[in-house]
Specification:
The chain is mainly α and 343 residues long. The protein is 46% helix and 8% strand. The chain contains 13 helices and six strands. The protein has helices at residues 12-38, 57-66, 73-85, 105-114, 130-141, 145-151, 187-204, 207-211, 217-230, 237-249, 257-264, 300-307, 331-342; strands at 48-52, 95-99, 119-123, 178-182, 316-319, 325-328. It has a two-stranded antiparallel sheet with strand order 1-2. Strands 3-4 form a two-stranded antiparallel ribbon. The termini are far apart. The model has no long low-confidence stretch (mean pLDDT 89).
Length: 343
């Protein structure tokens, strides 16, 4: 008699456990892969300056992936969405950032969300013009030259200063020093900080002495800019300022080559006679008195020389080959000095 087949019993509990285990393993695998996707893209610790513009999460993730700063654009996008859903994060802010492939996706997102933008030190030497400053700002801070030049007007300064600012151009009023600015900073903020530095370093620090002077702050800055261009030897700054003041007192034309160079808009190693006739209010060969404004940004030493000119009888000076000058009281003495220096 054939044996009857037994029905195989399947335990529902065992099935549930098996499925749960499989799902758990899959979740663990997914979490592991997700965590791996958020890990640093490489061990390369070199930073890259990355410009993050206002963009959606998808485009941001794609940009970072193209720069090889993250492993997965999808994982980064999920990270942003998860943080936003949990209220842990803020929207990534536009700007320039120093980012490295050795940073995890979480570190990169934290930097973008907190707006920890890239900052750089930039140095403006004494005697720089606005044009030279604009060129350096574009090269080192990615601030467009024309935007900076457009902002370099008195009306753009947001901080209060203790003197009247010219509306047309702030040539000479941006204090030469070393500053730390955000890469891509707004030009008007750069201008305001540099003008504020002049106010704090010179105007406020010497306000009592300035009050006793016949010259206004703009006139002092203009005089200092002439000294900055003329004096190569530090010990001659106050003396050159004294000569200029003597000529102003006698209503003599200053006849300073540096003002002609500024009027020409370019530096020439040697001025020609025709250059001295350039039609410009800055040409002190044609016009008496100080030029209408500074011709560069004077440093503190030249500002102090303008504030305290040396007492001298000299009305003339001529440069030696080493950059120092021969000072003379009369035109005849001056002509003899020229022959000796250039002979």
């Amino acid at each position: 008699m054939p044996r009857s087949k037994r029905k195989r019993y399947i335990n529902p509990t065992s099935i549930a456990v098996t499925v749960a285990t499989a799902v758990g393993l899959l979740l663990l695998l997914a979490v592991g892969l997700y965590r791996l996707a958020l890990a640093p893209a490489s061990r390369d610790t070199r930073t890259q300056l990355v410009h993050i513009e206002s963009m959606g999460t998808k485009q941001l993730a794609r940009t970072l992936r193209q720069q090889k700063l993250i492993r997965s654009a999808t994982a980064f996008r999920l990270l942003v969405q998860a943080n936003m859903a949990l209220g842990k994060g803020k929207t990534p802010k536009a700007g320039y950032y120093d980012l490295s492939p050795s940073m995890s996706a979480e570190e990169i997102l934290a930097r973008l969300s907190e707006g920890r933008v890239a900052r750089r030190k930039v140095t403006f030497p004494e005697g720089f013009t606005l044009a030279q400053m604009a060129e350096r700002l574009e090269r080192e801070l990615d601030i467009p030259q024309q935007e900076f030049l457009d902002a370099a007007r008195g009306t753009a300064v947001s901080r209060a200063v203790g003197f009247r600012l010219p509306r047309a151009s702030l040539e000479g009023y941006l204090f030469p020093s070393t500053y730390t600015f955000n890469v891509g900073e707004k030009p008007d903020l750069v201008v305001s900080e540099m003008v504020a530095a002049l106010n704090e370093t010179f105007v406020r620090a010497h306000q009592n002495e300035i009050r006793r002077q016949k010259l206004s702050v703009p006139q002092l800055v203009t005089l200092a800019s002439l000294v900055e261009r003329e004096a190569r030897a530090p010990e001659e700054r106050a003396l050159i300022a004294g000569v200029i003041m003597n000529r102003l007192a006698r209503n003599m034309r200053l006849q300073i080559d540096a003002t002609v160079q500024y009027a020409l808009g370019e530096h020439r190693s040697r001025l020609l006679y025709k250059d001295l006739k350039v039609n410009s209010p800055y040409n002190t060969y044609l016009h008496a008195g100080l030029p209408p404004g500074p011709i560069c940004s004077p440093g503190l030493a030249c500002l102090q020389a303008a504030l305290k000119p040396a007492k001298t009888d000299a009305l003339f000076y001529v440069a030696r080959r080493d950059g120092t000058h021969v000072f003379s009281r009369t035109y005849e003495e001056h002509q003899q000095a020229i022959k000796r220096v250039r002979g």
